[in-house]
Amino acid sequence: MPLVDSHCHLQDAKFDDDRDQVIQRALDTVEWLVVIGDDLASSRAATTLIRPNVYAAVGIHPYYAATVTPEALDELRAMARAPSVVAIGEIGLDYFKYNDTPRDVQAEGFRSQLELAAELALPVVIHNRESTDDLCAILDEYHTRLPGGVMHCFAGDAAFVERTLSWGFHISFAGNVTFPKAVELRDAARLVPLEKLLVETDAPYLAPQPVRGKRCEPAHVQLTAESLAETIGIDLDDLRTATTHNAAELFLQERSTS
Ligand SMILES: [Zn+2]
Ligand SMILES: [Zn+2]
Q1: At 253, is the pLDDT very low, low, confident or very high (cuts 50, 70, 90)?
Q2: Domains of the chain, with CATH numbers?
Q3: How far is the CA of 7 from the centre of ligand 1 (A)?
Q4: 147-180 pLDDT, tens digit each
Q5: How far is the C-alpha of 118 from the C-alpha of 108, rounded, in Å?
Q6: Which of 48, 58, 167, 218 has the highest CB neighbour count under 10 A?
Q7: What is the pLDDT of residue 1?
Q8: How far apart are CA 31 and CA 157, in angstroms?
Q9: Which ligand does the CA of 42 lie closest to?
């Protein structure tokens, strides 16, 4: 049965004790998955997990935007040349209260990684938390130079869905779309055309409802897919097929880089 986890952090220390079993369960459940970096070390670690049906994305999260130096960009560029590195991410903006990285530093780190993605003709995995207006202004500028992108762990309203679609980007839902109180998020999910929809776990975070509060792992994407199919009112098989096709279109497209 087709299914893809479009966003997980299998290199996270929470998987140190049983990573091989977690990957085994993952690949028993999904066709393939993408391990996402959030700083240089985790990006490196993501690339070491590459194997058949395990792909990687490399990038620096807005929490660590101050580390986006020219040297760091050179290392990301070098890592991104490996054939199974399929995107630059996760990158973006995060204005949540625990992030004390100044907004101008975040914007600078975001922009220079969007430049890198454009240079390498790689799609982008976008992180946004309480920073929608500034994020939209930057992506309005860059989207035409990018071969696609995904708004990961989508959180937002109808207007943000529309804006994201205007860039031709995909929209990915994580386990939080299954939470009983996530009524607005489910309303947003119903507005996403099936051909732009993705599912993810963001493991080890955001375990979906039946396993909420536990460590999340990629195999749990199945639970999010079931819930999302019910929300949208489509057959689970159709949702699996569509999201798998969409993920391949975004991440596994043939590219010509020079
Ligand atoms: Zn994120
Ligand atoms: Zn993530």
Answers
A1: confident
A2: 4-251 (3.20.20.140)
A3: 9
A4: 999 999 999 999 999 999 999 999 999 999 999 9
A5: 15
A6: 58
A7: 85
A8: 30
A9: 2
